[in-house]
Amino acid sequence: MGFPLLTLTAVVPAAGAVLTAAVPAARRTAAKWLALLVSLATLALAVLVAVRFEPGGARYQLTESHWWIKDFGVRYALGVDGIGVALIVLTALLVPFVIAAGWHDADPLETASKRWRPTQGFFALILAVEAMVIISFEATDVFLFYIFFEAMLIPMYFLIGGFGDRAHSGSDENAAAQRSYAAVKFLLYNLVGGLIMLAAVIGLYVVAGNFSLVEIADARAAGKLDMATNTERLLFLGFFFAFAVKAPLWPLHTWLPNAMGEATAPVAVLITAVVDKVGTFAMLRFCLGLFPEASKWATPVILVLALISIVYGALLAVGQRDIKRLVAYASISHFGFIVLGIFAMTSQGQSGATLYMVNHGLSTAALMLVAGFLISRRGSRLIADYGGVQKVAPVLAGTFLIGGLATLSLPGLAPFVSEFLVLVGTFARYPVVGIVATFGIVLAALYTLVLYQRTMTGPVKEEVSGMPDLRLRELLVVAPLIVLLIGLGVYPKPLTEIVNPAVEHTLSDVKQKDPAPEVEAAK
Amino acid sequence: MENLIALLVAAPLLGAAVLLCGGRRLDKTGHWLGTLLAAVSFGIGAVLFADMLGKGAEDRALHQKLFSWIPVEGFQADVAFQLDQLSMTFVLLISGVGTLIHLYSVGYMEHDERRRRFFGYLNLFLAAMLLLVLADNYLLLYVGWEGVGLASYLLIGFWQHKPSAATAAKKAFLVNRVGDMGLSIAIMLMFTTFGTFAFGPVLSSVGETSEGTLTAIGLMLLLAACGKSAQVPLQSWLGDAMEGPTPVSALIHAATMVTAGVYLIVRSGAIFNASPDAQLVVAIVGAVTLLFGAIVGCAKDDIKKALAGSTMSQIGYMVLAAGLGPIGYAFAIMHLVTHGFFKAGLFLGAGSVMHAMNDEVDMRKYGGLRRYMPVTFATFGLGYLAIIGFPGLSGFWSKDKIIEAAFAKGGTEGWILGGVALLGAAITAFYMTRVMLMTFFGEKRWQPAPDADTAPSAEPAAEHRAGELPHPHESPKTMTIPMIVLAFGSVFAGGLFSLNESFVKWLEPVTSFEHGHPPIGAAAVTGATVVALIAGVGIAYAMYGRRPVPVVAPRGSVLTRAARRDLLQDDFNHVVLVRGGEHLTRSLVYVDHSLVDGVVNGTAASVGGLSGRLRKLQNGYARSYAVSMFGGTAVLIAATLLMRGV
Amino acid sequence: MNPVNYLYLAALLFTIGAAGVLIRRNAIVLFMCVELMLNACNLAFVTFSRMHGNLDGQIIAFFTMVVAAAEVVVGLAIIVSLFRTRHSASVDDASLMKL
């Protein structure tokens, strides 16, 4: 059993959350530093996990297992495969940036502070989300996973509803109403998904008699556990629905633009880059692992939904007037790619999808955080209120452009690698789907460049003429992200090495082989 | 030796990184650093070239693998370079012309406060372009392919404060992305067909798959080439791209980047050879563009846009040649190189003229400049003679060979393609003579400089003196030296290449070569070309040399008006794509809000309504609650008894 | 005596109590009616204990008494404070605790 490293990666941010919340209101700055230090410590632990993980070793490593509710076969069971490691590191990596970028987002309002803004609460909630997300990536017990999958809604709800974006076109009351609308919408969508999943979790227990991912999957592979075709399909749908809401997949996506629009930019990053990844991750681990046959059965429909997400999300992004909602729709398009890669069921597609999760986290974080800096300067989220920023704040514009180029998957930046792998992997099995998805790359260029053109170029608008360039803190947030985007774009090998074996395992779960090339070319 | 290849790319890449991240400290020296690193790249290229000449023709190709890029099961993409004769030609052209244009830009951009960044972008472009031609597989080529697109985007939009420049940059990137889609699909097809996309294995095993697959791959590659090389139907961005600074137009949109499509087709020659259908489409696209660009070039009054039309047309020649198969590949590349010299020279000349004329671009407001700018006139004149194919100069050797090869294609196709190429030669002579006469000869038609704000082209290279007539003067040395060097190339390169067929023999191991035999004999074709040339020049002289040129453009015929608007391509795009797209996105936003969201909100509203009714039961009277409790208990007991009774 | 008769008595007492709860308005009376119902239940429990010959019913009766005592304490306190503020012991006047 050894040292409980995985538990520690979740306990540290959880304890940090409690401690941060306990800091008295007068010592606000101390709370911020505490949260930052805790998140950095978590990052160190996550890196340690990645170092200790042996890509060529067993499927699940660093495992821990204790009985929790023995009568119901519920275990506190943790373990990571390569996909989990990649996402844990991503989460632990992004949270310090989220905290640093949101350094002043929860400060008390200077003017007529009607509302109490508990600064410590903001950072404590972020750490709580981090802890729950990390444990979701580690859980190998379905029940344990379910608990944290649902529990992370609570801190997210308060983050969205309690700490909205100060830049709002309407009045204060109007802003508050929209904010609570967004928060409730987020909660309801995800709760409904979660409840349906709960039914499926119970159903799984009835059929299988325990909750252990490994045991059930092994039993299924060995043919010891037979499920009636319909049972398997229903259970699959129950799980998939919850993950599709979280991911989000068309037509269950409409909570995301509201939530990302109303939340502060760092929280928006937390939603799309971290929390939503649990959905796509769980599709890979639970849907494919537990219900291989049903996954294959549902593939055509899911591929179509993913394609619709890609094209529809991109088209809607083109039509948005609000910077943050634009990024949200772009994310919907990207999640379409991730789902496509997962259900193409080829090694390129699934490796691509996993890399996509990581790279999308980085690229969206870069774009969204810079957008947040921009919005906080001008106090407006509307694209039309900007123009010519490039002239007054060239560094801000430059980083924004790089974030945008990453979003449109420019070769040389990390997202290109993953997007191309997804496309190739999909094309190998479903050529038509692959070709339609390729239209996404043109549309991505359209919405990104239109956004850049309207905000950054052209004559300098009067309102932006005094806009200061990026400050040191902001630059420190963005620069590492850009370095990572370039680094993983040029040399993604460290990541693929960790991910590849896990993908092979997943593919063997669903008993799929890559389509062989038509000609075995002379090597 | 092969370890030097990576340095070719690394030197300008380093320059880009240093210049873009270096901050204002480098404002004073940055441009020289950029130029130096471009020159370093050229120097390494020259060393490698010398080394290559020392070896036998068959083992000249060098290979360098840096590292494994995307190692995923069944998918091996390496960062690896391949330097063969074809790549070598491009390396020398790119780094050579690139260095000259860096040098030119030192003078041209002298007054621009963002000069350091301009050189950073130029270096980025060089790195990406060298990567494109050195890559040993299609995926790495794709990286360079989009990299040059990015550099082009940044440089077209260099004066971002002008909305027209920003729009042109965006348009260029978007149209190129459509082409990139073709390249992506081609790579995916290669992967599913051959299991790899490295040049060697793919090109050597084309024989093992069906012609249909190869045609599909070929057409997708052609789509990519159309986007990058501004061929019909994806040509519309090139004219707008002239919003960029003139050195950019010379380097990227004339000499190097736009010829990447030709490189792609010639590099993939084996695929096209095995698919005659795809090859024929290539030739047709080239022939159509050749005429299209030439017609557009005849109508433009903007000197840069006239030259852009000419670029389109000349690349049409190259694509046509590439579509002829082994009889044309070598000549496509040869024309590409000579075109690189004379067109870059012409653009630099145009930039020099604009520099002298308060950044005026309208040729109707030039006139009589030959006396004021002798060096520019001489170099521009030599470039002009080269492009129209004046016997003995570079353009003559390469273009004449292409026309011969087109006739040699044989059959009806051969006659049509050859005829079009010949007609194109006549039109080329016409519009280039028009440019020459309107700019350097005739009356002075100079106009006072407009206000800086309303200037048609906001090239801030020279100070604007609003309301004053221009004072044309010769440009500084940094600008004239590159023009002179390029003029030498325009004059002698073609002849040198044709001497003893040296260029064809040099490329033969890579591109394969067959002698084409036109049905009417090579001498007859050459004669016809010269006749077409004389006809074109003659008509232009009659129209623009003998008669005064009006300052305000006459309304012109229907064709002229259409050609001024790029043969209505933009209008078509606007109506079909832009308007249609706007309607689509707007209605989708509406649908998302009212339908997708509406269903959910409707459910929420109906639940709310129901609970509003149920709420009335909760009236606060303790006794009514008691009634419901007792009533409920009674019902339960009754039900239990009844069930038991049954 | 037949123990069933005690059950009849318990049922009667319970019904009287229930009717009182439903009909009367005065909180004190209502309260007494609730006590009556509880005691009717106690009677039934004790009777059942006797009929089945084990002690379970009696034990539950004790529990009920404890709960009833606690309820009286809390309930009376509420009623007194209500009376202080509203000068009325009618339960219908205290209908503000609703959504």
Automatic annotation (TrEMBL), chain A:
Name of the protein: NADH-quinone oxidoreductase subunit M
GO molecular function, one term: oxidoreductase activity
Family statement: Belongs to the complex I subunit 4 family.
Localization of this protein: Endomembrane system; Membrane
UniProt keyword Cytoplasm, yes or no: no
PANTHER family found in the cross-reference section: NADH-UBIQUINONE OXIDOREDUCTASE CHAIN 4 (PTHR43507)
EC number: 1.6.5.11
Keywords attached to this entry: Membrane, Oxidoreductase, Transmembrane, Transmembrane helix
Residue ranges occupied by any NADH:quinone oxidoreductase/Mrp antiporter transmembrane domain in the UniProt entry: 139-443
Membrane topology: Multi-pass membrane protein
Annotated transmembrane regions: 6-26, 33-53, 73-100, 121-137, 143-165, 186-208, 234-255, 297-319, 326-345, 357-375, 395-418, 430-452, 472-491
Pfam family, one: Proton_antipo_M
From TrEMBL, chain B:
Transmembrane feature ranges: 31-54, 89-106, 118-135, 181-203, 209-227, 248-266, 278-299, 372-394, 414-437, 481-500, 520-544, 625-643
Record localization: Endomembrane system; Membrane
Record region (Disordered): 449-475
Entry-linked Pfam families: Proton_antipo_M, Proton_antipo_N
Membrane topology: Multi-pass membrane protein
Matches recorded under NCBIfam families: NDH_I_L (TIGR01974), PRK06590.1 (NF005141)
Primary residence: membrane
Name of the featured protein: NADH-quinone oxidoreductase subunit L
Organism: Streptomyces antimicrobicus
Top-level taxon in the UniProt lineage: Bacteria
Comp. bias regions, Basic and acidic residues: 461-475
Domain NADH:quinone oxidoreductase/Mrp antiporter transmembrane: 135-419
Residues covered by the NADH-Ubiquinone oxidoreductase (complex I) chain 5 N-terminal domain: 69-119
UniProt keyword terms in alphabetical order: Membrane, Transmembrane, Transmembrane helix
UniProtKB/TrEMBL annotation, chain C:
GO terms for MF: oxidoreductase activity
Keyword Protease: no
EC number(s) per entry: 7.1.1.-
Catalytic activity: a quinone + NADH + 5 H(+)(in) = a quinol + NAD(+) + 4 H(+)(out)
Subcellular localization(s) per the UniProt record: Cell membrane; Membrane
Topology in membrane: Multi-pass membrane protein
Regions crossing the membrane: 6-23, 28-48, 60-83
Primary site of residence: membrane
Signal peptide: none
Enzyme class: translocase
Keywords: Cell membrane, Membrane, NAD, Oxidoreductase, Quinone, Translocase, Transmembrane, Transmembrane helix, Transport
Record note on quaternary structure: NDH-1 is composed of 14 different subunits. Subunits NuoA, H, J, K, L, M, N constitute the membrane sector of the complex.
Protein family: Belongs to the complex I subunit 4L family.
Role noted for this protein: NDH-1 shuttles electrons from NADH, via FMN and iron-sulfur (Fe-S) centers, to quinones in the respiratory chain. The immediate electron acceptor for the enzyme in this species is believed to be a menaquinone. Couples the redox reaction to proton translocation (for every two electrons transferred, four hydrogen ions are translocated across the cytoplasmic membrane), and thus conserves the redox energy in a proton gradient.
Entry protein name: NADH-quinone oxidoreductase subunit K
Organism: Streptomyces antimicrobicus
